Amino acid sequence: MKQKTLSIITAVLLAGAATLFPIYSFAASCCGGGSAASLTVPKYAAAVADLSFDTEIYDGYWNQSRKYIADPPGSDLKQYRLNMGLGYRLARDWQASVSLPYVWNDNSYSGVSSQTSGLGDSTVSLMFEARDDNSAWKVRDIGDMIPGVSLGVSLLIPTGISPYDNQHSSFDITGRGFYRLDGNLLIEKTIRPWNASIALVYGTYLERSINREYGKYVEPYRKDLGDRFSASLSTGYTFVLGTGGDSITATASYAYLNEADASFNGKRDSGSGFDKQSVGGALSYSNNDQNWSIRGGWNHAIRQNGWGKDFPTTDVITVGVRYVFL
Amino acid sequence: MYFFRKLEFIFCGFLPEYKFVNARILLSRARIAGLLLFLVCMAACGDNLFPSGEDKRPSVLAGSNGGNVGQKAPDFSVQDINNATVTLASSTSGKKGAVFYFTMWCPICDSHMSSMRAMVAPSFPDVNFYLVDYVSGSIAGSAGAASANGYAGGMFTTLADTNHTLTGNFQGTMGTTVVIDSFGIVRMNEDYRDGAHLLSTLATLN
After folding, report:
1. pLDDT tens digits for B25-67?
2. Would you say residue A125 lies in a domain?
3. Taking CB atoms and an 8 Å cutoff, what residues of chain A touch B22?
4. For chain A, which end, N or C, has fewer CB atoms within 10 Å of the first or last residue's CB respectively?
5. Across the interface, which of B47, B54, B106 has its CB nearest the CB of A61?
6. Which residues contact A125 (CB under 8 A, 6 or more apart)?
7. Interchain CB distance below 8 Å, B171 and A214
8. Taking the model in full, what pTM does it have?
9. In this structure, what CATH number is given to the domain that contains residue B167?
């Protein structure tokens, strides 16, 4: 019984983790990218290994006036990412993780096509579980309503190919070329079979020197990208299958992302920031005995006026497999 | 490993005895995390981990042809979306110079073009502004894209670089901005950024 309870808790937490930080940075057609999603290690696990594959399909963008503009006819823009992640519990309330993506850009327009690949920007994270979620079956007192709270820091490391490398085309880009330090707050609550979570992330890029753009050396200057804020809300429902304890969790999510204006040599570039809203859905299947879980998800940017600014509208389809080491 | 052992010694020295064992375990696991971080860093081979601010622009031989700043721009002949032929000579004829912005009709491109339309072009009526479409593959495609993105007509002329002549001449890609003066000399060839350098470059044209 204890094992079964543990497994259900694991499944629920895994489902939550599967939709945690569902926001992806710029990618493929114009802007580099390839950040992997973060990992969380379930409370009673020692480590987690995760492998996922994203297909990001581009179809237009929101312009400066927040108007949706379709891509030119005949264009077919995709980015594929293989995300490898490893999370490790350092202590009862501390965990660390590393996520490393490999990115394939596949861009076809009527007049040009390009297929390139390379390492994307990677992420290392440290998380502190400030308060555990009791994951109650039934609310008996106010204490059962208190959510789990986790605080974390993440460092985005520019291991991808950026515009400032010796690459001549924007089609080759797999990363943005900047370090970014994020502060993460995760609030989650499970009252079985329901769960809900809020993830808030505030990040600041580290200003850097630039002396080359797309393979051409230029007069050196300093650039800083704007601070980034993201929020995602998700709610899920877990179906226990039969009496074996296998379960499927269905999750729906909403995400908002905003990046402030960049600056050059300390001067703000007005209008260079962007924002984006998207919705998502995910299904996660967890097998209790083997500690395996598989998942599939879909994140959709709403192709309507007003739902974003200066950002590509994309669909991200994710399939993944995860193993939890108890 | 020496670093972690030193850290362990310092850290554990301040801890009560009952926490000592946990701290040792924590630090032991931190070694693994540190090793993983090191592997990630080692896996990267780009210049982004340790950016350089060193000026490495190559010296350019005066009078040579090419797309670099200071060189004489290579001649070209491309069609605009109205089927008119634009050459190096015609692009600057009767003007102080010409600006060529390479677009793939993306959000960053729109941000740059919008900035150029609002902040740059109105101040320089004696400069021609061209949008170089290197992705649409046909004049009709470029015309459609320019119209759909709100840049048909007005102060910009859209060029259909179907043979990638301009793209090759100037090593153009998304956001590349090239300024050529009335003598055919390349005065600027770089990413658009915030438009400040474009403004200062155009201000020096005679």
Report:
1. 655 666 666 666 656 555 555 689 999 999 999 998 888 999 9
2. yes
3. 91
4. N
5. B106
6. A38, A39, A96, A97, A98, A99, A152, A153, A154, A155, A184
7. yes
8. 0.84
9. 3.40.30.10
